[in-house]
Design goal:
449 residues; four-stranded antiparallel β-sheet; 19 strands; 33% helix
């Protein structure tokens, strides 16, 4: 079926459907417009043709659930997305208001355009497109669109565990994050996990004069710096006992997939804003997909304003995010980290802010190649398969809790500026995403699950 002709006939209508959702605030961290957006998204699922739609409550923000049942014998695909967005700050850095979607130079500018409303609505409108083309869907389809992804999907694991029978599926399909450079689509088979912690130490009851009390009052910043040196060496190796225990190495098939991925070192340098990067394609993707990280996300102590202020600060804190690879359990890593701190600096407190498990779907699953071809056909560029994303998403909730394979096919351009001012999505990527989802539904009916 020529889904593109139906999409072209509805270009303006589809764009307005997206704009309506983009105009509705849904800032989960501030509880600003979230429920209103959930109700709007539920309406969009109903108008797209989903047979059953409901809002399902969590402890914070509701989940939008939709279902279209074809047959007990047909495969079931669960489409995941999120309707919540990041705060737009700093608003003054936007070239147009963040909640007034604007098209400039072939791009839709708005908070949520790429992350994730543009991609989520491409999935929803694919249902409408397919039903207009065929009258019915080829497989059973379920939607789970959450409102807490931007605050760490804090209730998703419990929600899925509680409703695992309702959510039962053969495959979870999601579109989030950016595509590869030059507009190449790709199929992501997994993500790195994450553990986010804060280390904090307080020495004195107040700041002290750095001369009159120098060498007398201990400096908490130096205490944290000395502690950090016991955690990581100059080559980037983590020194916490047991940190690497059980890390799952890549398979030969996964390494072969890395070799097929595009790589342009100069483009990497431009994308990250650092001219000093020098590495091969193999090193780049190995570090991104299969190696954990130990990153200082923020360090705060003392005076950081203009000019000088001579003090010994009373306290210091450092925020650390640790990206985890397969077989690294964030709970276990947190325990090892606590033990390390107790050994080297027992007066430093350790607080956990968030965690996600790493996740990966096997590259030899029968639907991987057909989905890759579906994306390639829709975007008109060679599509690739990448074993893991460098970042972290709640993918393990599908592979570990629900117990089904999961794939991610991003529809947003590589420079979508998600979480930043002037977030955007190329207009054609939005339409190509609708077509890709239609083709994915088509190929799934022929897969022996």
């Amino acid at each position: 079926m020529d889904y593109r002709s139906i999409i072209d006939q509805n270009r303006e209508a589809y764009l307005e459907e997206l704009f309506e959702v983009l105009r509705q605030k849904s800032i989960s961290a501030q509880n600003d417009g979230v429920r209103e957006c959930a109700e709007l998204v539920a309406d969009k699922l109903r108008s797209a043709g989903m047979q059953h739609v409901e809002l399902m409550e969590t402890e914070i923000h509701p989940v939008v659930y939709g279902e279209y049942h074809v047959s007990e014998d047909a495969p079931t695909i669960l489409i995941y997305g999120h309707y919540d967005v990041q705060p737009p700050d700093p608003v003054e850095a936007w070239d147009s208001p963040p909640f007034e979607p604007t098209v400039r130079d072939g791009r839709i500018y708005a908070r949520g355009a790429g992350d994730n409303k543009g991609q989520m609505m491409a999935q929803v409108l694919a249902i409408r497109t397919y039903l207009e083309a065929e009258g019915t869907l080829p497989v059973n389809v379920k939607f789970l669109i959450e409102g807490e992804e931007e605050i760490g999907s804090v209730n998703l694991v419990d929600f899925v565990d509680t409703h695992r029978e309702k959510l039962k599926a053969d495959l979870v399909y999601a579109s989030d994050g950016p595509m590869l450079p030059d507009g190449h689509p790709y199929v992501l088979l997994g993500v790195r996990g994450i553990l986010y912690v804060e280390l904090k130490v307080e020495e004195a009851a107040f700041d002290n004069h750095s001369g009159n009390k120098g060498n007398i009052v201990p400096n908490p910043a130096w205490k944290l710096i000395d502690l950090l040196h016991t955690m990581r060496d100059a080559d980037g190796n983590v020194l916490i006992d047991g940190f690497y225990d059980g890390v799952l190495p890549p398979t030969e098939e996964e390494l072969a997939l890395l070799e097929k991925l595009p790589f342009d070192l100069e483009e990497v340098k431009r994308n990250v804003g650092h001219d000093g990067i020098s590495m091969s394609k193999a090193d780049y993707y190995r570090k991104l997909c299969f190696e954990p990280t130990f990153n200082i996300a923020g360090f705060a102590s003392g005076y950081g304003g203009e000019g000088s202020k001579t003090i010994i600060p009373k306290d210091a804190k450092v925020k650390i995010d640790i990206r985890l690879v397969m077989n690294q359990d964030p709970d276990r890593i947190f325990e090892l980290l606590q033990n390390h701190v107790k050994k080297h600096a027992p007066d430093v407190t350790v607080k956990q802010f968030g965690k996600m498990w790493p996740s990966r779907t096997s590259a030899d699953m029968p639907f991987i190649e057909p989905i890759r071809q579906a994306a390639e056909k829709s975007f008109g560029k060679e599509a690739f398969i990448q074993p893991s994303l460098g970042g972290s998403l709640p993918d393990a909730v599908w592979t570990k809790v629900l117990g089904v394979p999961s794939v991610l096919v991003p529809y947003a351009n590589v420079d979508e500026a998600n979480h930043s001012p002037n977030e955007n999505m190329m207009v054609e990527n939005f339409y190509n995403g609708i077509e890709t989802t239609c083709h994915v539904l088509d190929v799934m009916k022929d897969i022996d699950m």
